[in-house]
Amino acid sequence: MLKLPQSSTDRKHFMIVGALVVVTTIILGFFLLAILPIKAQASVQAEPIRWLFQLHLWLIAFLFSLVVVFMLYSLLVFRRRKGDTSEGEHFEGNTVLEIVWTVVPLVLVVIFSVIGLRTLQQATSGGDDVQVEAVGFQWSWTFNYPNGVTSAEMVLPVDKPALISLRSNDVIHSFWVAEWGPKQDLVPGMTTTLHITPSKVGEFSLACAELCGLSHWSMLAKIRVVPEDEYTAWMDEKLAAQNLQTASR
Amino acid sequence: MAAVTTSAQAAALHPHDAHAGHDHYAAQLRMNRLGLWLFFISEGFLFGGLLTVRFFLWGADTRPELDQTIGLIVTSVLLISSVSMRLAETAMERGNRKAFSVFILLTALFGLIFLGGVMVFEWGLFPSLYPAHLTPWGDKYGAVVFAMTGMHALHVISGIIFILIVWNLARKGNFSQERHWGVESCAIYWHYVDVVWIFFYPALYLIGNAVHVTH
Amino acid sequence: MRLTSLGVVRGLVGYFAGMLIGMAVVVISRLVLGMSAWDQEAVWVGGIIFSIIGFLLGVGAMSDWLKWTRGVQTPLRHGPPVNQPAWTRYFGVDYNHKVIGIQYGVTAFMLLVVGGSFALIFRSELADSGITFLQPGTYNTVLSMHGWVALAAILLGIAGIANYLVPLMIGAEDMAFPRLNAFAYWLNVPAIVTLLISMLFGWDSGWTAYPPLSLRGPVGYQMVFWAIFGIGLSSILGSLNLIVTMLLMRPKGMTLFRMPILCWAILATSIIQLTATQLIGQAFLMLSFERTLGMPLFNPIYNAAGENIGGQPILFQHLFWFYSHPAVYVFVLPGLGIISELLPVFSRKPLFGYRWVALSSLAIALVGFLVWGHHMFTSGYQPYLRVVFMISTLLVAVPTGVKFFSWLGTLWGGRLTFQTPMLFTLGAISVFLIGGLSGPILATAATDLFLHDTYFIVGHFHATIFGGFVFPFFAAIYYWYPKITGRMYNETMGKLHFWLMTPGFWLMSLAQMTAGTMGMRRRIADYDPALGVENVQLLVTIAGFVIAFSILIMIYNLFTSAEVGVLAGNNPWRSRSPEWQIPSPAPEHSYARPITVVGEPYDYGLAGSTYIATAGAGDD
Ligand code: HEA
Ligand code: HEA
Ligand code: CUA
Ligand SMILES: [Cu+2]
């Protein structure tokens, strides 16, 4: 059995704890990655979000281990033994330490501010090759394309930057496709926008993410991301159908 | 569940009652003063919030059309009322009860004139006297004007009530030259309400270009 | 004993009488002004305002002041009521800070149970997909009530701790303004009654009450607005009282840096409450007026040219979060103060870096004023604001970290024992840690664009609230229980409570976060089984019930131990703090003689050092 040093300032304590922190950080990091499977992965804007999210998980794993391992170690090693009636060691603080653990987190904060800024730019920028207007209302959606096509489902070509303008006339809603990453509120009285470049073909679900009354929970719409030629075909079909409609009117 | 032990001298009077000694009065006075100023800091956030609302909704470059003459008059009246309030307080400090009564009632009167001006001319409460240019429900201009003047008027009204209470207590001889926290607090409160208006007046009447709204 | 001799009964009579009078006043004024008699918004607003005043008049919280306006002097009455059982003082106006503290604390506990029970109701609905017994409208109301009732419980719980402990800890006779203190407590009661009445009408915006939604729904909103206004006013007045008490009523020798550390936390909390609370009060009043008078402050309206000449919804969010973000530090700072207070006692060591811990509370409070926009990353405000609020939010991590590391420094090299209060303290540290660390991940705006309004947020704030308030609150209850009742709680049941609640809580919070990353939105009455979160949701529900069960054990423990617990003696924890140097239960007049401070508060393990001395007969 390992024999622990008596003095609380002995280096050995810190070496043991340090090693344990490394081990738990790794275990905890993988555990967190496993239990927090972030869904954002089907758009260009989702990539930086997922990347930063997972970076954060490692930071959490490290800081959590740091504090909790130190704590559990103290609980074990410095617990009062049977029959011991002495008081704890008397030290009231250490200015150097306090400064260290103020400055180090400060540095981390600066680093994460810079990273945060960069990812924010990546996650909120993109082109406007395709433009769609999404109108939310209690409790449904319609999508208007610049060429006059109106649809109850949103169809976008894959890998083409899309600019989605968002409008609402009743209450606040929020446009969110989990797989795409970012969300954006629809605010009465203003038009907001969202850049999305879908990177995976498939069917997704658009959900309103801001409580908007009775049927908020079911304010959903279908999103289809399709290859470019399929998109053009769909658009043509829609156009034809709508022209037909207007013509017959 | 829990009980605070009932001590033998239950229900006995507080050992340091308000009249007990000079020391206690001085200590209580310090606490009262600090408490009042903390209250003002707190209220400052309320009025600051209203100013924020005004700048958020109107921006720095617009304001509604309001009657400038009336604005200037009510503002002057309110400022003068602060002078008369100061005179009342000094009268109390000198022990001149007569002058105190006169000045404090004069202050209340000025307050009432201010209030009347706001109600009649800004709010247009009596259209037969003066037709209003704004309604609270018309647009953001009316809404903010009413929100700001309404909250301020509420404070003026409570100030006037405060004055009347203090006047009545003074009449009954409740204050002395040395001990008149009631008068002091009333005076500070009144000045405070005035100062608030000094911020509100330019925000409502002076900053930005008047826009004429029609709906 | 007649029933009406209980203040609260008279208050309730006043409440309903006031309501009728207020309604009548509105109806009559409307008739006089030539409008239709009935407008439910206006009539209810009148009813609510008058009912709150009616309650306060009925209970007698304003009687002294009303007498003063007539020049009648009223001595401060002390001690239990005459000719009545002693317990009745808890049901009426009493000026003793210990009584008021207990009134706050018990009310808070009741609210926690009510609010938690709401959670259990909607959690049962969410246990699997498909709508079974809660219709979406009811779901929204129950959820919204859960939010506000639980938050009210926190505000009152903190006021309870502060009221009971601050005067005791600084050796003051009472609070600076005992009548204001009682008034502030009693203001909560009609506000809570009003909040509960809102259930009958429903409201569905969540606790945040964002317009335009909150401008449209049922009339229940009006009750919520005014109830929160009342609770807010109460916390403004209460914090004013606490600040004056701490600044002016400390005994000789107690400099600010020799106060027990909890006082620092409460000072920082009080600064927030004193100032920021005005803005939520104002925001809710504006909502109420927009509903009643149609003042377009938040709802846009358009002129013929299509320009918006009305209000802006985002303005509300700024006002709301300017309070509600700092408010989360109100929830948490006293809890962190309790952790800092208890650790030295159970480690038999000085608090590591007292000054840093004290000042970090202040730093958290002050930086907390600059970060409100992190709740609005997706709201559509100017994009540069995202950057500003991202950086300011991340900064809060720094002073919070100082606390954590100082706690480790306190534990290191101690002689630790693990009674229930210590267990809850340690639990609080670990739980608040995961809550806090899930903050920066939201603060970096890009990630929040995904996480906002998902269950990840729900996980984040239950962790911060449990770690920052619930665990420390329970620690505090167990710890000061002997001082309040004179008896020990049952240690076995206390430990059982802890060992049920802690894993229950971890399960609940982590499962909520998992659901969030899988795409589960907040505030939805039902979810798509295709999300794949059904199992996770079931876990959250089970965990919620485990927590509730553990709290039932606590309630049983507290009730029975008050009768059969072992006598605790003055100072069962061997603490140096002043409140433990007086008899248990704390007597009516806490300190027979004024105390003076002659040493440092946390010099555990330093032979021969003392913190306070009782003034001799001569040197008053
Ligand atoms: C007690 C309550 C409490 C506390 C203390 C906190 C603390 C923090 N909160 Fe939280 N929060 C809430 C309660 C609380 N929060 C609630 C109720 C909501 C939701 C409201 C709603 O919408 O209904 C919310 C929502 C919320 C959001 C908005 C999410 C959204 O809706 O999109 C954000 C975003 O930035 C956020 C961030 C933070 C941060 C950065 C902290 C920080 O203060 C945390 C600081 C602590 C640590 C970081 C851990 C310890 C530090 C160290 C070990 C040092 C080293 C660390 C680093 C360098 C990172 N919170
Ligand atoms: C003090 C704060 C607090 C506390 C303690 C809790 C406790 C709990 N909360 Fe809640 N919660 C909030 C504050 C709090 N919450 C807030 C502010 C919101 C946001 C609201 C909004 O979005 O607007 C929220 C939202 C919220 C949600 C999100 C709902 C949604 O978005 O749709 C969920 C979902 O799981 C949840 C669950 C729980 C559970 C399971 C508990 C459990 O821990 C509860 C455990 C039970 C008790 C504490 C009560 C004890 C009960 C007994 C002892 C039983 C005895 C009872 C009888 C005999 C009748 N809460
Ligand atoms: Cu629309 Cu929720
Ligand atoms: Cu916040």
Task: Give a verbal description of the structure.
The complex is a heterotrimer of chains A (249), B (215) and C (620). Chain A has 249 residues and is an alpha+beta fold. Chain A is 43% helix and 22% strand. Chain A folds into two domains: 11-77 and 97-124; 130-248, Sandwich (Immunoglobulin-like). The termini of chain A are far apart. The mean pLDDT of chain A is 90. Chain B is mostly helical and 215 residues long. Chain B has a single domain (49-210), classed as Four Helix Bundle (Hemerythrin (Met), subunit A) (Up-down Bundle), CATH 1.20.120. Chain B has five helices and two strands, in the order H-E-H-H-H-H-E. Chain B has helices at residues 22-58, 68-94, 97-122, 140-171, 181-206; strands at residues 62-64, 209-211. In chain B, helix 1 (22-58) packs parallel to helix 5 (181-206), helix 2 (68-94) packs antiparallel against helix 3 (97-122) and helix 3 (97-122) packs antiparallel against helix 4. The longest helix of chain B has 37 residues, at 22-58. The longest helix of chain C has 35 residues, at 313-347. The chains are: A alpha+beta (249), B mainly alpha (215), C mainly alpha (620). At the A-C interface, helix 2, helix 3, strand 7 and strand 9 of A face helix 5, helix 10, helix 11, helix 12 and helix 13 of C. The structure holds heme-A (HEA) (2 copies), dinuclear copper ion and copper (II) ion. Dinuclear copper ion binds at residues 136, 139, 173, 208, 210-212, 216, 219 of chain A.
Features:
heterotrimer; A: 249 residues; alpha+beta; Immunoglobulin-like; five-stranded mixed β-sheet; C: 620 residues; Cytochrome C Oxidase, Chain A; 2 domains; two-stranded antiparallel ribbon; binds heme-A; binds dinuclear copper ion; binds copper (II) ion
